[in-house]
């Protein structure tokens, strides 16, 4: 459990937030650049001292301003992975990996060298210098080095920000495995929606040094505040679904969810894989009768459960076995005669859901990601 309350004045910028994250494998700090995310994890790590506050991990107090507790970084048992690997250039990969391990008393080590090598797939890299590694390989080694200090908490500060799309896609599955494989929770900083969808259980939404929202990924991403901070055009719904089949002839994958079956662009995920799907409210159309003669393939019976008017638009909350939000104009609201309890149909175009709006979640426990051939 994370129990964190921090206050810090940086010139004209004030950071002031408090949160608890109980039982989450990955807690994501999400917000625009300059919102204070990195400052938060630097204070948790002990690299920056708060003006006031408290930091505790599983009941162990790392900092308490009132009680005068301020453990130095080496005693906090917190691993840190930065945006760039920051590997020691004069050490081999093996030397970088064992650096933190050798500084952790043997009696406190609960993560084994061979286990880290296996999970991260870096056995072939042990004798290389950092200069001979790709960006993705450097980050895997940096993660391994942090893990081998046997931390009670792993901090990750936008570890994929410096990577291109291919290397980012390569590394995400490795990060997703870490909490389950090693029992170490992660506090993960990001401003990328796809990373949060893929990794996080608990989401903290930061803006201008303050905590705007907190809760499950599904709840926070579905509220209007997330759309404003993330820069997305509409609020959205996060639907948990499972792959049932691939229709390669028509280029679609079928996903089962509480509302039925939704077709999305063709994916490579195997049948049975659990996914999260982000559906923008502005991409959901409404019809009072089941439409025919349309190109839209995803048509779901639903019932209106909430109506919220804001800035000339109406957010329509729909129950179709799970919550789905539609955003329509006031004119459309009036023409449809919407009211609470009204049955209707929700329509979602397959093409409106991009692959970046779909993320695997909770990988199989016995499944390890594989390296791209050029990385071996």
Automatic annotation (TrEMBL):
UniProt GO cellular component terms: membrane
GO molecular function, a single term: ATP hydrolysis activity
Tagged with keyword ATP-binding: yes
Domain ABC transporter residues, every copy: 1-233
SUPFAM superfamilies with a match to the protein in the record: MOP-like, P-loop containing nucleoside triphosphate hydrolases
Domain annotation Mop: ranges: 293-357
Source taxon at top rank: Bacteria
Keyword Transcription among record annotations: no
Keywords: ATP-binding, Cell inner membrane, Cell membrane, Membrane, Molybdenum, Nucleotide-binding, Translocase, Transport
Protein name: Molybdenum ABC transporter ATP-binding protein
């Amino acid at each position: 459990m994370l129990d964190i309350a921090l206050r810090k004045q940086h010139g004209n910028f004030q950071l002031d937030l408090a949160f608890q994250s109980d039982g989450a494998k990955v807690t994501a700090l999400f917000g625009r650049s300059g919102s204070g995310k990195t400052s938060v994890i630097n204070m948790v790590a002990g690299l920056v001292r708060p003006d006031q506050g408290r930091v505790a991990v599983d009941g162990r107090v790392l900092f308490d301003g009132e009680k005068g507790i301020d453990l130095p970084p080496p005693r906090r048992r917190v691993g840190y992975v930065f945006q760039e690997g920051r590997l020691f250039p004069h050490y081999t990969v093996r030397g970088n990996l064992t650096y933190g391990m050798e500084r952790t008393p043997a009696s406190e080590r609960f993560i084994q060298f061979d286990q880290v090598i296996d999970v991260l797939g870096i056995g072939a890299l042990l004798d290389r210098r950092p200069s001979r590694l790709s960006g993705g390989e450097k980050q895997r080694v940096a993660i391994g080095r942090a893990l081998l200090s046997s931390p009670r908490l792993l901090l990750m500060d936008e570890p994929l920000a410096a990577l291109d799309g291919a290397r980012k896609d390569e590394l995400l599955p490795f990060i997703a495995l870490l909490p389950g494989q090693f029992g170490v929770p992660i506090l993960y900083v990001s401003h990328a929606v796809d990373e949060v969808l893929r990794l996080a259980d608990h989401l903290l939404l930061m803006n201008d040094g303050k905590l705007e929202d907190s809760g499950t990924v599904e709840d926070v991403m579905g509220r209007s505040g997330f759309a404003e901070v993330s820069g997305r055009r509409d609020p959205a719904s996060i639907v948990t679904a499972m792959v049932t089949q691939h229709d390669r002839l028509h280029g679609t994958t079928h996903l089962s969810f509480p509302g039925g079956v939704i077709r999305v662009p063709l994916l490579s995920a195997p049948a049975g894989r659990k996914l999260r799907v982000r559906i923008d409210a502005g991409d959901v159309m409404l019809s009072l009768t089941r439409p025919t003669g349309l190109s839209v393939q995803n048509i779901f019976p639903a019932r209106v459960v909430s109506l919220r008017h804001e800035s000339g638009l109406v957010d329509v909350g729909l129950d179709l076995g799970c919550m789905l939000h539609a955003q329509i104009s006031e004119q459309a609201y009036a023409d449809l005669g919407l009211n609470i309890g009204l049955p209707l149909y929700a329509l979602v175009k397959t093409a409106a859901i991009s692959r970046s709006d779909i993320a695997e979640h909770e990988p199989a426990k016995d499944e390890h990601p594989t390296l791209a051939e050029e990385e071996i």
